[in-house]
Amino acid sequence: MLAMNYRGPYRVRASHKAEPQIEHPNDAIVRVTRSCICGSDLHLYHGLVPDTRVGTTFGHEFTGIVEEVGPSVRNVKRGDHVLVPFNIFCGSCFFCQKELYGNCHNTNPSATAVGAIYGYSHTAGGYDGGQAEYVRVPMADVGPTVIPSDIDLDDAVLLTDAFPTGYQAAEMGGIQQGDTVVVFGAGPVGIFAAKSAWWMGAGRVIVVDHVEYRLEFVKNFANCEVINFKEVGDMAIHIKRMTDWLGADVCIDAVGCEAAGNAMQHLTGVVLPLQAGSATALHWCINSVRKGGTVSIVGVYGPTFNAVPIGNALNKGLTLRMNQASVKRHLPRLIEHIQAGRVKPGEVITHRIPLEDIGDAYHIFSSKLDNCIKPVLVMPT
Ligand code: NAD
Ligand code: ZN
Question: Name one GO molecular function term (predicted).
């Protein structure tokens, strides 16, 4: 089969790989029908995630048709069209029982913190992902969800990660009626966080980025205010000026670590080495939120950051919340939002690129070329 093949930072290509096999009675093999590239994949692509091994296949946002199931799988069968949450989870451990599926204890024996994720380095379990014609889906009884017949595939594939992650970002903000919510990052995750914030009672939603076409998109999609951070001086002062000098009630980090070419570089003029990344958005969150406010972090951080203003956070009495999204927990509610016509997540898809051109797909998405917001890979026919 054709599959994405990681060769090192900024080097990915499609190459032929053996098709995955059932390795455990709980496995399914899924033929991929939609597979996205995520901002999280860019952290891998930029070489920012530890233990990302050459030869592995990324991809944790996919839908597909079940081709084969192991002998103990009961909840899905050959021919089912499923969406597969990015978390690989057992459904029964201490954490899964609390619906903390992103923190499953059984599927990633190599880590104490993160659960397992498809195609997300050996730090997250070393499973191959779905940027391929076929993928092995472990614990197939708990993750994969049959796509309701009235949900189209473009909407379904956004339910595997970006939409629930944005939703959870807003949820972790603990938004109260009338709150001002500032979302840093106008990628798919930030876009869905902004949209979701209204459902939770926000009175004002402001999204910050520097990519003009993304700000334009989110302004329409989520009916929010936008700030291009290149056009403001001190971010915290700017937000305070907009909020009677109190600061925002809730700030959301939907950026995470970024390689060189990011906001820190823009602000300081210093070109950062690849491994340095930046936690600019996190700084801005902590400094722009009001005293007693909440910072909700879903942006992913590969490297360790020592420069987070934790003293400020303490002095302001902030609540910091963060996690990998627990995708499956949100599905019933988010499917309802789609069915009620309140959101059409598939609208964030801007590009359909053949799997064999995966190198171009990563380059376009990483460099924000051609107004790219969300690329979907087209499988060979
Ligand atoms: P993306 O790369 O498409 O979007 C990130 C956006 O942030 C870009 O538009 C970029 O221009 C903007 N940006 C960069 N620096 C900024 C700054 N200082 N302030 C404001 N905006 C800034 O990524 P995405 O797919 O939207 O994902 C966003 C983040 O969420 C990533 O870190 C990703 O790894 C993470 N993520 C987390 C989870 C989870 O479960 N916690 C799931 C999916 C994605
Ligand atoms: Zn993702």
Answer: zinc ion binding
